[in-house]
Amino acid sequence: MSTPDNVAAHPSRIPPPTPLPTRCRHPADIPADLGPTLPAQNLERFNTAPAPKVHRALLTCLHSPRWAHRVAAHRPYPDVPSLLAAADEATYDLGPEELAGALAEEPLPKLPAHTYAAASTALSAGYAAYEARFGHTFVICLDGTAPDEALDRVLPAIRSRLTNDSEDERVVAREELRRLTNGRLRGLLGAATAPSVHL
Fold it and tell me: Residue 87: what are its φ and ψ, rounded to 5°?
């Protein structure tokens, strides 16, 4: 099923172009006094920092208070993979309302500056059709995707996922959200494959 031609375009829903990938949505919200350090030191600080600070930092990775509380409450973690596994499990355990709340806070996918006007119009129509069908923002993890390839991933994904029923799409959206959250956590901790956003 392709994007309906009669869906009104909403250019205001197109996010401002920024380089890909962007994992942590609100770097300015990360507590400054947890500042950048080496990854092992970051994990130690994550394990020992006051719970409110860790909770705020986690909310920049996934906007779910229950998820953030659960991940913070299970400290200390022996290593980064253990933390990521716990975060994944907490994401899978989100109830329907909690998942819907987290999805509602997600930004639209970021696209490179040279995205052409026709594609922006098609994206606006696709985003509008998706939100009308499923009631939340379209989410997709673009970690590891070259900027020039982002558009070629996003548009086909919208069209394909518009054919899903609500339950199937909830499964797909949860998995994309899990992958986004995993990447943001890596960024927060300064893991080797993440950008320069640290806890």
Answer: -65, -40
Using a CB cutoff of 8 Å and minimum separation of 24, what contacts does 72-78 make? 75/46, 75/47, 76/47, 76/48, 77/43, 77/46, 77/47
Q: Which residues contact 70 (CB under 8 A, 6 or more apart)?
A: 86, 90, 93
Q: Residue 135 is encoded by which pair of tokens?
A: 């009631």
Q: Which residues of 40-57 are buried (b: 16+ CB within 10 A; e: fewer)?
A: eebbebbeebeeebbbbb
Tokens of 103: 């999805």
Ordered domains of the chain (ranges, CATH): 11-189 (1.10.3330.10)
| pTM metric for this prediction | 0.74
Task: Dig out the tokens for 17 from the structure.
Answer: 């172009």
Cβ atoms 88, 179 nearer than 8 A: no
- Distance in angstroms (rounded) separating the CA atoms of residues 168 and 54: 33
pLDDT in tens, 121-153: 899 899 999 999 999 999 999 999 988 898 899
Q: Amino acid identity of 46?
A: F
Closest by CA position to 62, among listed 49, 71, 74: 71
